[in-house]
């Protein structure tokens, strides 16, 4: 029983990180209708910069710098690349982000080279703690708490600030919201910045022994891949759904790793996604696209 | 992907016979050049070209699926894996560790292509229900599934550490893996490298001609109808579900052929990947195939050959030009050929989507139009 509870805590902790990633993904999708295949690269670039400045500035400042850089990277991708390819369809823009992803992944992996695996979770990585009589890794608990606070803040902002209102209006109807005086570029740019920042925070938990595994930051691009199924399971148009999707992915991963095999954990996530898609082709909470003839 | 423009159906212009003649002469000249290439190139360069042909066959399948039938797939490397594994199972005799039927190699080749096509058709219940990006990510799960299955079933796919071997193609009287050749053309000994090169070139030509035939006929029209507007296609009596299933089946069959070519290229070695991201059949390769299609121009068969030359050819060619022999990998901080190629094709994808969404095929059409004017 205590093993099971431990698995659940681990799963929720991982799931919270995936939820952060998937939420950023969905925000970007809602604002620009573009699937951001470079999300793993935003993770990687934030983590790389944080790792590079960590020896000079200490962990906390490095973490803040990393988050900031990831946000700026997201902003730049939108402002410089996407905003200048207006004629391309959203699907082509998704392929464009694949190109960006290839470039960033290649360059960061080259810079990291064959040196020792970089880790970012100094204050909590590899430290056990007691929680209600269970021994759990601190990373999962910290991740869960941080993610819960951030996601709560996001939903408050999404619901009550004028930024959130503009965001919702634009995803409802782009032209009408522009006619109402909402500056479209500001909404999309801020969405990419927020998505990037969330990715920059997620990497602080991904590049750890507990979640990312032995190769630290190097594997976080691959681990961040799980944000796609998370966002798809929840439905690409639903921020709330992405949180649910993230938790489902984290739990499926942890349970499969514990009770089947470590290799199967990755596959289990995608199998869950296929099953969800077979039942609901637009995800659990996604808006079903109406076809008009 | 609606930016690819379908070839308009026009009445044959008066000069059609002349262009046909020119095209035939061009094809014949190209055939002669390709036939003579192995006599002048060393086997290293032949291997590069063979790898390009392999990529081209796979990319042709994917470009038809994405550009003509409008279905995004990130599972192409999975189907390449299926093709390679099924050829190995059909063609190799099998031993205590591996299952094998020991069928004649030509039959095994055909069966491997058919099997991969059927596996693609099996994906129809999912591909028929999903659209656009949902389909892309759903198909990505096949790559993860394939990686896991291949590692779970070493008796079929070979073990991830040492793999399994499959024989090279043997036609009656002509063995493509001939070790002691007695055939000479222009005083050049035609060994296994030269023979395989001809085989790969012929298969690529076959794939191209078959693809052209499919696209210009009823099949291609059905795909484009579904791509442009599913509702309209249904109204006109085109079965959307069936078109999507055939598109996936044909595209996977091409990937299956590419998979067999991959096995031959590795001198018969069929070895599953040890990691899902880097390797011969992983996610990176799936994205590479997509890159070839985008660089060549989505939907263009000729363009996909050019895309393969850039994405598959460059990392093989650069070390040869540098004089070093190893292809290098994504490790160390040096600018290895793989790093350079990745940077180039990443940048090409970005630039092409931004400035010429129809890829090099679109560029080519523009140039032709400029010349004609």
TrEMBL record, chain A:
It is found in: Cell membrane. InterPro entries: ABC_transp_permease, BCAA_transport_permease. GO terms for molecular function: transmembrane transporter activity. GO terms for biological process: amino acid transport. It is a multi-pass membrane protein. It comes from the Bacteria. Keywords: Amino-acid transport, Cell membrane, Membrane, Transmembrane, Transmembrane helix, Transport. The keyword Aminoacyl-tRNA synthetase does not apply. Its main location: membrane. GO terms for cellular component: plasma membrane. The chain crosses the membrane at residues 12-29, 36-53, 59-81, 140-158, 187-206, 267-286. PANTHER family: ABC TRANSPORTER PERMEASE PROTEIN (PTHR11795:SF450), BRANCHED-CHAIN AMINO ACID TRANSPORT SYSTEM PERMEASE PROTEIN LIVH (PTHR11795). Belongs to the binding-protein-dependent transport system permease family. LivHM subfamily. This is Branched-chain amino acid ABC transporter permease. It comes from Metallococcus carri. The lineage of its organism: Bacteria, Bacillati, Actinomycetota, Actinomycetes, Micrococcales.
From TrEMBL, chain B:
PANTHER family: ABC TRANSPORTER PERMEASE PROTEIN, HIGH-AFFINITY BRANCHED-CHAIN AMINO ACID TRANSPORT SYSTEM PERMEASE. InterPro entries: ABC_transp_permease, LivM-like. One of its GO terms (molecular function) is branched-chain amino acid transmembrane transporter activity. It holds the Pfam family BPD_transp_2. GO terms for cellular component: plasma membrane. It is found in: Cell membrane. It comes from the Bacteria. Keywords: Cell membrane, Membrane, Transmembrane, Transmembrane helix. The keyword Methyltransferase does not apply. This is Branched-chain amino acid ABC transporter permease. It is a multi-pass membrane protein. The keyword Transmembrane applies. The chain crosses the membrane at residues 20-41, 47-67, 74-93, 105-126, 133-150, 245-266, 286-314, 334-355.
């Amino acid at each position: 029983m205590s093993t099971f509870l431990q698995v659940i805590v681990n799963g929720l902790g991982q799931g919270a990180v995936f939820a952060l990633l998937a939420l950023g993904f969905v925000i970007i999708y809602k604002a620009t209708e573009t699937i951001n295949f470079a999300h793993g690269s935003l993770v990687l670039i934030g983590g790389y910069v944080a790792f590079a400045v960590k020896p000079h500035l200490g962990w906390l400042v490095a973490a803040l710098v990393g988050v900031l850089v990831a946000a700026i990277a997201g902003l730049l991708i939108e402002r410089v690349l996407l905003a200048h390819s207006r004629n391309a369809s959203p699907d082509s823009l998704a392929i464009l982000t694949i190109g960006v992803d290839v470039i960033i992944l290649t360059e960061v992996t080259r810079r990291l080279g064959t040196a020792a695996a970089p880790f970012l979770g100094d204050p909590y990585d590899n430290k056990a703690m007691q929680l209600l009589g269970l021994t759990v890794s601190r990373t999962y608990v910290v991740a869960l708490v941080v993610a819960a606070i951030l996601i709560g803040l996001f939903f408050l902002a999404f619901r009550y600030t004028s930024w959130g209102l503009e965001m919702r209006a634009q995803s409802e109807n782009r032209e009408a919201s522009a006619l109402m005086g909402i500056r479209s570029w500001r909404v999309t740019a801020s969405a990419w910045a927020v998505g990037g920042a969330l990715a920059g925070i997620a990497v602080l938990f991904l590049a750890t022994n507990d979640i990312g595994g032995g190769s630290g930051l190097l594997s976080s691009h691959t681990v961040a891949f799980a944000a796609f199924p998370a966002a798809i399971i929840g439905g690409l148009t639903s921020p709330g759904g992405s949180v649910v999707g993230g938790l489902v992915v984290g739990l499926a991963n942890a349970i499969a790793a514990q009770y089947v095999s470590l290799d199967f954990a990755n596959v289990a996530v995608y199998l869950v996604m296929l099953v969800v898609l077979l039942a609901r082709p637009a995800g659990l909470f996604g808006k079903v696209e109406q076809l008009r003839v | 992907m609606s930016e690819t423009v379908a070839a308009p159906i026009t009445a044959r212009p008066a000069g059609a016979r002349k262009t046909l003649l020119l095209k035939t002469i061009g094809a014949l000249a190209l055939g002669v050049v390709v036939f003579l290439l192995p006599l002048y190139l060393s086997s290293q360069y032949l291997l590069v070209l063979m790898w390009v042909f392999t990529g081209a066959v796979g990319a042709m399948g994917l470009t038809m699926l994405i550009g003509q039938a409008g279905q995004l797939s990130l599972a192409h490397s999975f189907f390449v894996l299926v093709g390679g594994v099924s050829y190995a199972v059909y063609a190799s005799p099998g031993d205590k560790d591996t299952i094998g039927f020991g069928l004649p190699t030509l039959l095994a080749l055909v069966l491997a292509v058919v099997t991969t096509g059927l596996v693609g058709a099996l994906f129809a219940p999912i591909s028929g229900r999903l659209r656009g990006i949902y389909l892309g990510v759903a198909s990505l799960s096949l790559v993860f599934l394939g990686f896991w299955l291949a590692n779970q079933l070493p008796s079929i796919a070979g073990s991830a550490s040492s793999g399994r071997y499959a024989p090279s193609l043997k036609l009656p009287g002509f063995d493509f893996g001939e070790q002691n050749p007695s055939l000479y053309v222009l005083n050049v000994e035609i060994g296994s490298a030269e023979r395989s090169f001809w085989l790969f070139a012929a298969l690529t030509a076959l794939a191209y001609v078959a693809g052209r035939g499919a696209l210009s006929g009823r099949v291609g029209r059905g795909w484009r109808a579904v791509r442009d507007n599913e509702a309209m296609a249904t109204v006109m009596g085109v079965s959307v579900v069936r078109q999507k299933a055939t598109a996936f089946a044909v595209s996977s069959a091409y990937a299956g052929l590419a998979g067999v070519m991959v096995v031959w290229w590795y001198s018969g070695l069929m070895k599953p990947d040890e990691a899902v991201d880097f390797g011969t059949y992983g996610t990176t390769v799936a994205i590479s195939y997509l890159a070839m299609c985008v660089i060549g121009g989505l939907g263009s068969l000729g363009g996909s050959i050019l895309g393969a030359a850039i994405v598959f050819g460059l990392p093989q060619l650069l070390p040869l030009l540098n004089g070093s022999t190893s292809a290098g990998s994504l490790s160390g901080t040096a600018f290895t050929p793989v790093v350079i190629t990745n940077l180039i094709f990443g940048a090409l994808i970005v630039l092409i989507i931004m400035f010429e969404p129809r890829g090099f095929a679109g560029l080519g059409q523009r140039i032709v139009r400029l010349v004609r004017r």
